[in-house]
Amino acid sequence: MTTTVLVVDDEASIRQMLCDYLRVDGFEVVGVADGKSALEHLARSPVDSVLLDLSMPGMTGLEVLAEIRSTHITTVIVVTARGDEADKILGLGLGADDYVTKPFSPREVAARIRAVLRRGSTTIAVTDSAHEHLRFGAIDIDVEGHVVHVDGQMVELTAREFEVLLMLARSPGRVLTRRVLLERVWGIDFYGDERIVDVHIRNLRKTLADDANDPKLIATVRGVGYKFVGHQ
Predict the structure, then answer these.
(1) Separation between Cα atoms, residue 35 and residue 15, nearest integer Å
(2) Averaged over 101-110, what is the pLDDT?
(3) Which positions ≥6 away from 72 have C-beta within 8 Å?
(4) Fewest CB atoms within 10 Å of the CB: 73, 79, 112, 116?
(5) Cα gap 108→41, rounded to integer Å
(6) CA-wise closest residue to 16 among 27, 2, 4, 30
(7) CA–CA dist 201, 193 (Å, integer)
């Protein structure tokens, strides 16, 4: 089955170069110049992956990313020309699967697209094969349904946040390093910064109302990683 990629970049030369290379590399590609056009295309025709430039006039890449994550299920790789670490971390916190910094090679971009798609396939396979229901105080994790409730109210988690929580909850009391969490949730071929784990832990704590200074669910083991401290 052909993999479809949506390339979103306001620079026509870069957009065309990426589209041409990815087509030769076997992808089906659609290129658009702005965020509004990207969202309109996704509403008409879902894609497997989005390559999203962060620095665009009008609707910014981060705004587009937030909209995609609220309404669509697809992998997203953000692209930044600024090399700004804050942009990268913010993009990952909003649910991007990976990032690349301009200048880049089209070959690297193609490899990253394939890598995030492989990681997505692995995650789905693990989830579909699980038939567990985990409860820790007010927290209820429906593994098969991919749903988390806090005090009976469903909370919104990204797919990666859910997988990080699930990895920790399945091994209560055991310290999991950032590298272990990266390999098991993002895959051993993940190219990005290990701090993506910290971003997801921070988001989880915020969503689950877990105080980092007095954790009831996820504790930090300084210099090592994280462990789940909730009790069933």
Answers:
(1) 13
(2) 87
(3) 42, 46
(4) 73
(5) 25
(6) 30
(7) 14
Beta-carbon count within 10 A of 202 CB = 14
Distance CA 133, CA 125 (A): 17
Structure tokens at 165: 């929580």
Confidence of residue 191 (pLDDT cuts 50, 70, 90): low
Report the distance separating Cα 170 and Cα 123, nearest Å: 15
CA separation for the pair 82, 22 (Å, rounded): 23
Task: Tell which residue, 182, 175, 181, 185, has the closest CA to residue 224.
Answer: 175
CA angle in degrees (0–180, nearest 5) for 23-92-177: 115
Average pLDDT over residues 48-63: 89
- Residue 53 near residue 8, CB atoms below 8 Å: yes
